[in-house]
Amino acid sequence: MRSETEPWPNGFLLCDDEIHILRAAEFKLTRAGYDVCTASDGQEGWEAVQQKRPDMVVTDCQMPRLDGLGLVQRLRENPDTAEVPVIMLTAKGFELNADELARKWNVLALMAKPFSPRELLQTVDRALGVEVNP
After folding, report:
1. pLDDT in tens, 35-94
2. Model confidence over 105-120: pLDDT tens digits?
């Protein structure tokens, strides 16, 4: 592992094993000016983070190889990525506690699937302090 991860200004990592969700979110964020990298699971996402430190990570909770919570744990344990903002996506939104995720893992938001790409962009913009257009 590198001692310091290269910054990736305006960079976003999207992790989801559902390709249609990944592509829709990628399209919306790219059109909004974000530089997006995608990963089909948490392990692939973790490997991408080793190369460049994103400004934000949007990850599904349930994925093969390494789930979203495992990815967040690795991010928080690494000094280079400990402060990277995270938004968690889940098909089981009622089984995860947003307050507990925020307190324990500093997850900024929990979004239940299905969600609209517009809703995701608004959540991302709010988390980054960007003016949100309705």
Report:
1. 999 999 999 999 999 988 999 999 999 999 999 999 999 999 999 999 999 999 988 655
2. 899 999 988 888 899 9
Q: What distances in angstroms separate CA 56 from CA 49, 50, 66, 78, 94, one per listed residue?
A: 11, 14, 18, 15, 23
Give 62's Cβ-side CA count (13 Å radius): 9
The whole-model pTM stands at: 0.87
Separation in Å, CA 55 to CA 16, 20, 81, 100: 18, 23, 10, 23
Strands (E), the chain: 6-7, 11-15, 35-39, 52-53, 56-60, 86-90, 107-112
First to last CA, the chain: 42
- The answer to whether 120 touches 111, Cβ cutoff 8 Å, is yes
Phi and psi for 18 in degrees, rounded to 5?
Answer: -100, 110
Read off the tokens for 7.
């910054």
DSSP helix/strand/coil, 21: helix
